């Protein structure tokens, strides 16, 4: 099961690169905020249909959850606007490796401290080396642009 999930998250990451490749040109043509809105509008409609037909019928109320758990929705549009602005200027590879570096850095902190109710997974030397290699990749891709 773990291998299947790893394959799925790699495929999802590939999807984010495709999304970035589509959003850059779309943002240049219709405006970055309209491009962002289109992604969330279509995504909301699709999520609603999936929830309507496949969602659990006896799930706890969405509104019974603590407010801080709902703040992730604030981060998504910011991410997409930055993706739309950055990818045509610095390139998709540079944009995605920069996003990846930020994701890994913050993910290591969340795992290490067990923030947001996640299980604690202490940072060790291997995880730090992995982060360092991603930062090196960021430097190499940036250096290739110069």
**Distance between the ends:** 43 Å
> Rounded to an integer, what's the Rg over CA atoms?
18 Å
The largest sheet is: none
What is the strand content?
under 5%
Query: What would you call the shape?
Result: globular
Q: Poorly predicted ranges (pLDDT <50, ≥5 residues)? A: none
What is the chain-wise order of helices and strands? HHHHH
Domain unit count:
1
Task: Give average pLDDT, whole number.
Answer: 89
Draw up the topology in text:
Layout: H1 2-30, H2 32-54, H3 72-90, H4 92-113, H5 125-145
Helix pairs in contact: 1-2, 1-3, 2-3, 3-4, 4-5
Report what the structure shows.
The protein has 146 residues and is mainly α. The protein has one domain (2-58, 73-145). It is built from five helices and no strands. The protein is globular.
Output the keywords.
146 residues; mainly alpha
Characterize this entry briefly.
It is built from 5 helices and no strands. With 146 residues, it is mainly α. The protein has one domain (2-58, 73-145).
């Amino acid at each position: 099961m773990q291998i299947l999930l790893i394959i799925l998250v790699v495929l999802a990451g590939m999807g984010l690169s495709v999304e970035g490749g589509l959003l850059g040109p779309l943002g240049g043509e219709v405006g970055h905020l309209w491009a962002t809105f289109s992604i969330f509008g279509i995504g909301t409609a699709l999520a609603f249909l999936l929830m309507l037909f496949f969602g659990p019928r006896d799930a706890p109320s969405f509104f019974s959850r603590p407010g801080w758990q709902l703040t992730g929705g604030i981060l998504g549009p910011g991410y997409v606007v930055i993706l739309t602005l950055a990818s045509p200027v610095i390139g998709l590879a540079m944009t995605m490796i920069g996003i990846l570096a930020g994701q890994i850095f913050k993910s290591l902190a969340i795992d290490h401290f067990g923030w947001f109710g996640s299980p604690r997974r202490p940072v060790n030397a291997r995880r730090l080396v992995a982060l360092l290699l991603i930062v090196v990749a960021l430097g190499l891709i940036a250096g290739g642009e110069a």
